[in-house]
Design brief:
Layout (H helix, E strand, L loop, with lengths): L1 H41 L19 H9 L2 H7 L10
Length: 89
């Protein structure tokens, strides 16, 4: 009977498709859980939320030293707002 063979082929095809869909759903779910696990462990991908105090470093070259030695200390602090100079009397 040809209809019985066709019915068996259709049933086997439906079984293969069902298995394939379940495997894809399992892979998607596993990937999603893994991605959330990485985010929970390592944090999100945006910038660091913790604030770190950093101090700016300044270097004095020979031309800066020669101009600063001839000028007042307060004028040298105007050139670079990141440096703070103090003087003792």
């Amino acid at each position: 009977m040809p209809s019985a063979v066709a019915h068996e082929k259709l049933a086997a095809r439906a079984c293969r498709i069902r298995r394939l869909r379940r495997r894809i759903a399992a892979a998607v779910l596993a990937t999603f859980v893994l991605a959330w696990g990485v985010v929970a462990f390592d944090g999100s991908m945006r910038a660091e939320a913790t604030s770190v105090a950093s101090t700016p470093t300044t270097t004095t070259t020979s031309t800066d030293a020669s101009t600063a030695s001839g000028a007042d200390e307060s004028s040298s602090s105007e050139d670079s707002p990141a440096t703070m100079t103090t003087s003792q009397s």
